[in-house]
Amino acid sequence: MAKVLIVGEHDGKTLNAATHKCVTCAAGIAGAEIAILLLGADTAAVAAQAAAIQGVSRVLRVDRAENAHPLAATFAPQVAAAANGFTHLFGPSTSFGKDLMPRVAALLGVPQVSDLMAVDGAYRFRRPIYAGNAIVTVEADPSRLLVATVRVASFEAAAAGGSATIESRSLEVALPTHTRYVGARSGSTDRPDLQTAARVVSGGRALASAENFKILYDLADKIGAAVGASRAAVDAGYAPNEMQVGQTGKIIAPEVYIAFGISGAIQHLTGIKDARTIVAVNKDPEAPIFEVADVGLVGDLFQVVPEFARLTGK
Amino acid sequence: MNKIMVCIKRVVDYNVRVRVKPDGSGVMLDGVKMSVNPFDEIALEEALRIKERGSNAEVVAVSIGVADTQQQLRTALAMGADRAVLVQTDQPVEPLSAAQIFLALAKKENPDLILLGKQAIDDDANQTGQMLAALWERPQATYASKLAIEAGKATVTREVDAGLETIEVDLPAVVTVDLRLNEPRYVKLPDIMKAKKKPLDVITLDSLGIAAPVWLKAVKTEPPAQRQKGIMVKDTAELVDVLKKKGLI
To answer: Is the ipTM here above 0.85?
Structure first.
């Protein structure tokens, strides 16, 4: 029987919704018994949240001072030790999981399947390659621990209503001291999180400056949306890196994605193709984004955005 | 800083629209333009800048692949790498095996720093750097957008989901690079000529004693589900109307 251990992502206060999506992915394996592993300085609060996820039977807490920041070098030996006895080890395809999971896999001498988008069997999965231009079905050896990251945009978040047991674990693992956390700059705003927002407003290079992005922020605040950006806009310095959507940025699946002045390079489209509805506004009627947009408007974003905001005013 | 090793992968060029073979056995690669993985190009550029800032480190470009991978290593030499090593093999090499092979090279070369792209744009796996760091039992700093080296340490700013994070690692270390670390230089013709004279060693995978098995069997490859082209609206009022009717705003 499949026993899946999911490495939970959190900030000490809140369990990241990516974890709930990993649970849905794991539940796709018939008869899977699902546990969540939490590493941190104090995981009491997030453990309670993890225990409430439907389908989870156990939550394993590993609290120690060195786990205050999620450094892959520190976490990996602990995760590798905790995975003993499990058949599957999952983590989210977020910057946290992408950094950590391959290090764990290598410590255990096993390969990793990156970006699971569909479960066809306990050891058979689909994943995107070539910026999503192809989908490959891969089969792994059932005699080895299966390590994978889960493409969170491909799965709904598992619902609440569970009541898992919570166990504290102390792992006797020596931790390296060669990697140290220095600090972080987070673009925290009152807006919804880009990766989990139901509505996303996004801008491209056509915005032409960081100041001009303000019109998108204003519109986003009116409709309760997160704000994203194309790589071109981020490279040009109009928006910070955490707003980048696409192959090498964030892969998102909102209810509605509204793209202003984004032409629609394949690398960008791969980040939004799971959006329920894609809306595109672009001056160029030939822009490739119109090929995938559910609703398109050829027009000047500097007119459309303020008008849009006015017409939807709260 | 005496030596920097840069791992380079030969991949389908960034601008090629990749197509799936009708029989589902993979993607069409015949006659397709191949290039240095763009992230690895950024890694090499960073190594060259560290060298040029006065460390005078030797920059060694290494790769794994078919004989033609020498083309990409020649590009690396033309950009400014001092020498190159190709581990030649015709078999596909998955990230875990790539990490084992680079580990073998690291043990020979003893670099102070290994730089490589955060992912290759063909398999999009995003694994090799982290696996190499684990096997080498050294620090990793992934998704670097800023890198400062001093006194046996690297301070690395990383692009993470929440914004930017800074960590400090002892050298030697593995650093995987993100898009905004630098803009790689263009190769000039005289440099291409000079690169022809630089050393490029070719060794076989067998000589390293690494098997590089099929870890994950690719059963079939399919094109992605296509989105249907939707409707066009004439103005903002109609757009807002449509979205309201769909209950989206």
So the answer is: yes
